[in-house]
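Input/output pair, single chain:
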Amino acid sequence: MARLHEYQGKAILAANGFKVPRGRTASSAEEAVAIAKEFGGEVVIKIQAWTTGRAEIGGVVFAKSADDVRAHAERMLSMKVGQFPVEAVLVEEKIDIDREFFLSFAIDDAARAPMIIFAAGGGTGIEERAAATRRIPCDVNQGPRFENYSLPRAAWKRARWKSTRWY
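Output:
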């Protein structure tokens, strides 16, 4: 199973009709500043690293000015997460959020099968909210098994996500 950075996952969601904030990746501080100027207003800058808890390590920040964007991007692009250098940051427009969700597809090592992990409230602090996180097993041939969850398969197919931010 491939690992995706946030910007890659959001591109897939956007291509399939989900509403996501405007955003692009930058590999330099100057590129981050140019993107922020294009969007105008306040932006969110996020390290693109395969880790949880990015906000706690200074990897998710808001910036209002070009100087702030430059300073945060320079700092973030000099970070290492574990042994891996941060090679890109995601610069997104800051939007008003009605609802946040966390969605992940992972491999359940015990079941040796795919698993959908879903939680309301976004990705920050997901580890601490494990009890409120839905883990939906997926059969590789049949898809997700919804029979044990309060949201039936038909409701998932009808779902319309408006003013929703995906992490």
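Helices lie at 6-15, 29-39, 66-77, 153-158. The two ends are 19 Å apart (CA to CA).
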